Amino acid sequence: MRNLLNLNDPTLLRTDAYIDGRWTATDARFAVIDPATGEDLADVADCDAATTNLAISAAHAAQRGWAARLPLERSTLLRALGDAMFDNEADLARIIGLENGKPFAEAVGEVRYAAGFLTWFAEEARRTNGSIIPSPFADTAVLAVREAIGVAAIITPWNFPAAMMTRKIGPAFAVGCTIIAKPAEQTPLTALAIAELSDRVGFPAGVFNVVTGSAESAPVIGEALTSSRTVRKLSFTGSTVIGKLLATQCAATVKRVTLELGGNAPLIVFDDADLDAAVAGTIAAKFRNAGQTCVAANRILVHHSIADDYTERLCAAVDQLKIGAFDSDAQIGPLIDDVSVTRVQHLVADAVSHGATLVRGGDVTEAGSQFFAPTILTGAIPTMSCHTDEIFGPVLALTEFSTTSEAIAIANNTDAGLAAYIFTRDHARAWNVSRQLEYGIVGVNTGAISAPEVPFGGVKQSGIGREGSHFGTYDWTELKYIAMAGLHPEQDPTQ
Ligand code: NAP
Fold first, then answer.
1. How far apart are the CA of 185 and the centre of ligand 1, in A?
2. CB 222 within 8 A of CB 155
3. Which residues contact 245 (CB under 8 A, 6 or more apart)?
4. Is the CB of 463 under 6 A from ligand 1?
5. Per DSSP, which regions of 244-324 are E strands?
6. Is 280 helix (H, G, I), strand (E, B) or coil?
7. Is the CB of 345 under 6 A from ligand 1?
8. What is the DSSP annotation of 65-126?
9. Ligand 1, atom 20: nearest CA belongs to which residue?
């Protein structure tokens, strides 16, 4: 295998599982593939149930000691890990870009975003405050304290291999949980590099364990994690179908579950919108990671009176997008695999066969078999697959509407409820429509909504719980109520 990664620090390339502070080899291996070229990047440990159970035992042995450390000590380690990510930004971006396919500028952006969760939660580690409640009982103090849930499992997707990991380990480590993480088959190298950095900055053995596996092993690892009585929580980011399966598996042991699942974001352009801002926002909300984001604009709803103008400007903006591999100055990289290419091709064909018009793109380009052209469809209707399904590719499906209530009805006509976007200059409309949208996140006149400071998560079948922000540690703690009786005031002998 050629050394395709070409890192400044080659020791960041780790290919074994990380368990109890040790790199743990397995006989079975699986290949990590560069989606731009189809070449093998590395052969990685393909873990089984026994290896997963070793990681659970290590996390269990470490948990009480980790939770007993002063919050400031956990904070200091988290900050050191975040700083180590910033210090190794170029190498981490290269690993992300090669295994995931996103362009270099986006990969650097992901490293900074991901490291930002660690530095944010380094601060929050010192603020997991509880409450002292005015007591309803005589001579009794009533307190509510927040305690780490304990050993937790993390399962992450390939589309943000660094950020989806740090958005979970940040709050987990801040409050005193220990972790068994399973990254996606396509992108395990980023998680292993973060584990390597955690080792270097001095995280204790057993606090952070990474169990890698092929797609065939994922159900085996998932079963070991979800059936374990030691594992008290699962935090999953991925597809809605797998999220439902894992939540069902977790029911048997009544685990706490955080689910960050698929979206189907509407983006509504009203007749009073600043069209330049709307076009820029649409490009930002659609084409990051070649449209493979959970908050990607999926259904573009445009007021009929400005539809032609908006579409013309959108076409001009799409024509400027460059397609290419990681180390070029491209904005659009490859789709993650050929299954994704086929799925997006079917969505476009379904729309066209039901009456939509293809005005840009529509298929893969000469850049390679997984490089799908930025695509614009007009005349999309709610029964088409591009409305009912999460597109997860660089395809914009435009639908015209006449009234605000019609736009809201179309926008809410889905089981998903993660992100929505609206473009209008009218503040009253912005407020009222935001409140009527059944979504966890609403972007008003912007297509960029993600940051460590904000609460990220969905309603309906897009998930349970929130990640990031000062709410972000709540999903990793249990509230314990303590009633301390017998607090009689001392008798004063002089009275
Ligand atoms: P996925 O197929 O559900 O996979 C996600 C993770 O689950 C991967 O690590 C996968 O492992 C693992 N997995 C699959 N089957 C499993 C099983 N039976 N037991 C245990 N683990 C299992 O999702 P994806 O295709 O990687 O990611 C895309 C989806 O994630 C989209 O729907 C997107 O919207 C969603 N997403 C949501 C958010 C959010 O914050 N709401 C953020 C990012 C992505 P393998 O890769 O080894 O199969």
1. 10
2. yes
3. none
4. yes
5. 256-260, 265-269, 297-303
6. helix
7. no
8. HHHHS-HHHHHHHHHHHHHHHHHTHHHHHHHHHHHH---HHHHHHHHHHHHHHHHHHHHHGG
9. 222
Distance 239 CA to ligand 1 centre (A): 5
- Specify the ligand 1 atom closest to the Cα of 160: 43
215 CB under 6 A from ligand 1? yes
Q: What angle do CA 61, 145, 174 make, to 5 degrees?
A: 50
Mutate to test the pocket of ligand 1, among 30, 226, 237 (most ligand atoms within 8 A of CB): 237
Helices 71-87, 188-201: inter-axial angle, 10-degree rounding = 120
Nearest ligand 1 atom to alpha carbon 186: 46
Task: Copy the structure tokens of residue 272.
Answer: 């009073």
With a 6 Å cutoff on the Cβ, whether 242 touches ligand 1 is yes
The pLDDT tens digits along the chain (495 residues) read: 556 689 999 999 999 999 999 999 999 999 999 999 999 999 999 999 999 999 999 999 999 999 999 999 999 999 999 999 999 999 999 999 999 999 999 999 999 999 999 999 999 999 999 999 999 999 999 999 999 999 999 999 999 999 999 999 999 999 999 999 999 999 999 999 999 999 999 999 999 999 999 999 999 999 999 999 999 999 999 999 999 999 999 999 999 999 999 999 999 999 999 999 999 999 999 999 999 999 999 999 999 999 999 999 999 999 999 999 887 899 999 999 999 999 999 999 999 999 999 999 999 999 999 999 999 999 999 999 999 999 999 999 999 999 999 999 999 999 999 999 999 999 999 999 999 999 999 999 999 999 999 999 999 999 999 999 999 999 999 999 999 999 988 777 776
User: Measured between alpha carbons, how far is 122 from 80 in angstroms, rounded to an integer?
Assistant: 9
Distance 262 CA to ligand 1 centre (A): 9
Give residues with Cβ within 8 angstroms of 495, minimum separation 6: none
Q: Which atom of ligand 1 is nearest to the CA of 221?
A: 20
Please give the structure tokens belonging to residue 30.
Answer: 């699986």
Q: Is the CB of 101 under 6 A from ligand 1?
A: no
Beta carbons of 294 and 262 less than 8 angstroms apart: yes
By residue count, the chain amounts to: 495
Report, in angstroms and rounded to the nearest whole number, the Rg of the chain calculated over CA atoms: 24
217 in contact with ligand 1, CB cutoff 6 A: no
CA–centroid distance, residue 21 to ligand 1 (Å): 26
